[in-house]
């Protein structure tokens, strides 16, 4: 078989993924195995995957592949979210470019345009997920607007309404003036903005005096219904029971007192605008104040704004200030750094406006979800996320679930009259007509008398049901799928949607099924660039994931994101980590090519001379080392420390297997081609075991090499092979061999630093007698022609060596097996410079250690375990300095 010199990921990855799909390896059905289900956080159908999706989906795939190889019935359900606000905004913008508007098209035609958009982007996103190597069950692909999920959404709405949790109310809500819809509190992003604080004078009724109020939004004076100060603020006692006149409008409003106000802010006197501030609305309810809305849906001023009607809110602000100046009612303007709310979806500045909307009462629903985290029925990784969760859940507000959009799940409410309660809640218009007839006792009602609510439900209302609805658990609570797969195993998601999605899914799970929706939640951090800016499409600093995969390969990109992934911590992504991943793929391919070049031979008397005792100890070492690594990897995966498990695998394969094990195996080949059969199969067995451990992280190349190593059939996939079973390992064999590896590494470094070819013989002076088989390893790998034991009668100062190194406190000396005096002098001089640098570095290190240990605050703050480590480090550093100084003295005296 001809094996290509280079690993071509572009061809191989497509070929392998097609094979996986054809063999139906991703599908899952309930059986007698233990289930292991994961729901993919569904990407929005608004564009392409970004690096955050790559990170999230790679983590899920690692866990799924690991579970599959461990015999679980894995079910990874992919999905896509209809993303009401974002998708509608995209389609509206696209239509605008063609000179069309959704209102001219009408609801039905507009929805057809949205469906065409989503079809295109669904295909793009699905292909990208496949390119990444994700082993999803594509037969279970879910789209949040699919019929099954739609029916679950409608049924859950009706059930919640019947139970009294859903209600229609008139509240002050967050309003996105660009999308012309309400948004939830969690969809408002607050940013610090430099703005102006305007000090406006309000005339006291029947007096020639004024009070001054500071505001950042002077345009809202048209909605003022009171002036308020703190009851204990003596500065304003004279205002009790009085009224003031609102500038421009000349409307008379009362002065009230309430402890809500902070006397230390602004002037201590505040304007109350109930229609445009949630806290002002609470005061208005308390004192029965009028509520005046001054905004149109698009953020322009409405008829309550007098001569500013239909003017843009920010334009009106400028003109109002000019008018106030003319009226001599503007005292001053100050620069201020204050928090401003922006829509997460459209990035426009949010306005608070009063509106009739649909809400869910959340306080009682949240209680079981709070208890579940307290009692660790659901575990969070990292644990610190729990504190943020509790802070939010204990102050949870009613959830505004209606959106003034056309794309989404339409609210199942039908109106038959003009009064606020003239409606019925029903699954369809037929059911609605029957309910309406019964409600008002009127058989003359027809379909034409009914009008469905034009609004749609918040996108998260469908998403919070996913662990239930994907298994049809809302419509059919006891069906075999929900009974088998629920609760799911892991949820992998960003901490930024803790309240949007995670908390709400926990709430819905306990409400609809009285059971948690998942067992564990792993929160990824935010992916940032190397300027520490959040990677996002809006900042245009997001790498093109398709191009990354095309350039480096999916395995390399997966490696690049996984090697830095720590639960809850932000990561700085850089292409360099993908290069490291690509280098690993090349290393795997090259090691495979090396092994496949070898031909086996039967060991007999003629060939027995090639079977050395050092080979046996090397094989024992790699096998014991493997099970040590296996134990470490499994523990780290259970702790969701996937970066640590990947790093030890990377080092184990690159350093231990390739640089040491294979190099030693090469020494028993004849003509670099023939190798004893038993040794060859030992190499293959160890290589395959390592490939299994690497497979969840880098599935494509591990699959390709697995298939070629023994020329397997297409059905013999590594992804359905068994994960290695844990065996006992001998730690003494590992430690003793690792000492030799350390010696080899030191000698290799010295050769490189001094530009000494490996063909040049060296003599090693050791304080400890080396085992015979270890001596042979040193001879084979770093060309040590002789190892001399430094005994009592062997005076160090009489030795002729050019380099020195330490393994712990053990000293080693290297001498040239050469009579070339000039060469020796040259190496000696470079060693003097090198040792002086090392002593300088160690002295600096010792100074830092001493500074910490002499610092009383440091000693009281740092745990005892770390303190004892620092003290040991100090002793080791002092010993190293002493050894290097002795060596330096020797070098200078030679």
User: Can you summarize the main beta sheet?
Assistant: 7 strands, mixed
What Rg do the Cα atoms give? 36 Å
Q: What structural class do helix, strand and pairing data support?
A: alpha/beta
- The CATH topology of one domain is Isoleucyl-tRNA Synthetase, Domain 1
Percent of residues in helical segments? 40-55%
- CATH-wise, what's the superfamily of one domain? Isoleucyl-tRNA Synthetase, Domain 1
Tally of helical runs: 27
- Distance separating the two termini: 58 Å
Q: From the 3D coordinates, which CATH architecture of one domain would you assign? A: Orthogonal Bundle
CATH class of one domain: Mainly Alpha
Q: What global shape is seen?
A: globular
**Uncertain parts:** none
Beta content comes to 15-25%
How many β-strand stretches?
A: 31
């Amino acid at each position: 078989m001809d094996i290509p010199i280079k690993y071509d990921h572009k061809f191989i990855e497509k070929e392998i993924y097609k094979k996986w799909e054809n063999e139906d390896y991703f599908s899952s059905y309930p059986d007698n195995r233990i289930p292991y289900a994961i729901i993919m956080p569904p990407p929005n159908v608004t564009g392409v995957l970004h690096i955050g999706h790559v990170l999230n989906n790679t983590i899920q795939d690692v866990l799924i592949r690991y579970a599959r190889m461990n015999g679980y019935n894995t079910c990874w359900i992919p999905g896509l979210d209809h993303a009401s606000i974002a998708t509608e905004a995209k389609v509206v913008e696209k239509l605008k470019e063609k000179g069309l508007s959704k209102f001219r098209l009408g609801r039905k035609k507009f929805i057809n345009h949205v469906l065409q958009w989503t079809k295109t982007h669904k295909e793009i996103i699905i292909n990208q997920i496949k390119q990444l190597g994700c082993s999803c069950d594509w037969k279970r692909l879910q789209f949040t607007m699919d019929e099954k999920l739609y029916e679950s959404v409608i049924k859950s709405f009706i059930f919640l309404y019947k139970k009294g949790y859903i209600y229609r109310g008139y509240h002050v809500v967050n309003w996105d003036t660009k999308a012309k819809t309400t948004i939830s509190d969690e969809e408002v992003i607050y940013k610090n903005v430099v703005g102006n604080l305007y000090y406006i004078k309000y005339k006291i009724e029947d007096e020639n005096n004024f009070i001054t109020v500071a505001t950042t939004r002077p345009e809202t004076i048209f909605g003022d219904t009171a002036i308020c100060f703190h009851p204990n603020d003596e500065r304003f006692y004279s205002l009790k029971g009085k009224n003031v006149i609102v500038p421009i409008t000349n409307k008379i409003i009362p002065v009230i007192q309430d402890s809500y106000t902070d006397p230390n802010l602004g002037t201590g006197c505040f304007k109350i605008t109930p229609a445009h501030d949630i806290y002002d609305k609470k005061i208005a309810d308390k004192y029965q104040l009028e509520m005046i809305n001054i905004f149109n849906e698009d953020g322009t001023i409405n008829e309550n704004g007098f001569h500013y009607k239909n003017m843009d809110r920010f334009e009106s602000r400028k003109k109002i200030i000019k008018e106030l100046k003319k009226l001599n009612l503007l005292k001053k303007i100050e620069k201020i750094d204050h928090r401003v709310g922006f829509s997460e979806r459209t990035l426009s500045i949010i306005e608070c406006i009063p509106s009739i909307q649909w809400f869910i009462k959340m306080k009682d629903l949240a209680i079981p979800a709070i208890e579940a985290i307290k009692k660790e029925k659901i575990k969070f990784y990292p644990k610190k996320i729990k504190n943020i969760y509790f802070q939010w859940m204990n102050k949870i507000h009613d959830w505004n679930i209606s959106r003034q959009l056309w794309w989404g799940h339409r609210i199942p409410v039908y109106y038959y009259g003009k009064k606020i309660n003239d409606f019925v809640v029903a699954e369809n218009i037929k059911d609605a007509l029957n309910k309406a007839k019964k409600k008002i006792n009127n058989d003359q009602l027809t379909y034409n008398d009914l009008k469905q609510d034009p609004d749609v439900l918040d996108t998260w209302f469908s998403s919070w049901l996913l662990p239930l609805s994907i298994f049809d658990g809302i419509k059919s609570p006891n069906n075999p799928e929900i009974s088998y797969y629920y609760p799911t195993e892991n949820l992998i998601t960003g901490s930024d949607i803790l309240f949007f999605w995670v908390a709400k899914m926990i709430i819905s799970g306990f409400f609809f099924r009285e059971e948690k929706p998942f067992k564990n939640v792993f929160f990824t951090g935010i992916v940032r660039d190397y300027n520490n800016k959040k990677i996002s499409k809006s900042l245009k600093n997001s790498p093109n994931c398709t191009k990354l995969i095309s350039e480096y390969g999916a395995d390399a990109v997966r490696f690049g994101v996984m090697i830095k992934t720590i639960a809850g911590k932000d990561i700085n992504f850089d292409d360099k980590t993908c290069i490291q991943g690509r280098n690993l793929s090349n290393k795997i391919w090259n090691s495979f090519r090396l092994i496949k070049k070898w031909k086996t031979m039967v060991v007999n008397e003629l060939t027995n001379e090639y079977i050395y005792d050092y080979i046996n100890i090397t094989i024992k070492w790699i096998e014991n080392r493997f099970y040590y690594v296996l134990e470490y990897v499994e523990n780290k995966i259970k702790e969701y420390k996937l970066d640590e498990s990947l790093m030890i695998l990377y080092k184990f394969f690159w350093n231990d297997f390739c640089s040491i094990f294979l190099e030693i195996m090469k020494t028993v080949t004849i003509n670099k081609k023939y190798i004893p059969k038993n040794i060859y199969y030992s190499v293959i067995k160890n290589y395959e075991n390592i490939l299994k451990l690497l497979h969840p992280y880098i599935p494509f190349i591990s699959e390709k090499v697995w298939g070629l190593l023994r020329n397997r059939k297409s059905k013999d996939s590594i992804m359905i092979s068994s994960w290695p079973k844990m065996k006992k390992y001998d730690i003494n064999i590992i430690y003793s061999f690792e000492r030799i590896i350390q010696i080899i590494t030191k000698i290799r470094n010295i050769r490189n630093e001094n530009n000494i070819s490996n063909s040049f013989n060296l003599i090693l002076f050791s304080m400890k007698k080396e085992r015979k088989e270890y001596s042979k390893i040193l001879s084979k790998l770093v060309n040590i022609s002789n190892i001399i034991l430094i005994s009592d009668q062997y005076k160090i100062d009489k030795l002729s060596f050019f380099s020195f190194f330490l393994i712990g406190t053990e000293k080693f000396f290297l001498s040239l097996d050469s009579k070339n005096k000039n060469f020796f002098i040259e190496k000696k001089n470079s060693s003097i410079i090198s040792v002086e640098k090392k002593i300088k570095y160690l002295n600096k290190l010792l100074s830092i250690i001493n500074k910490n240990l002499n610092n009383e605050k440091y000693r009281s703050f740092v745990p005892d375990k770390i303190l004892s480590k620092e003290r040991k480090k100090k002793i080791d550093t002092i010993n190293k300095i002493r050894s290097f100084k002795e060596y330096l003295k020797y070098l200078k005296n030679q």
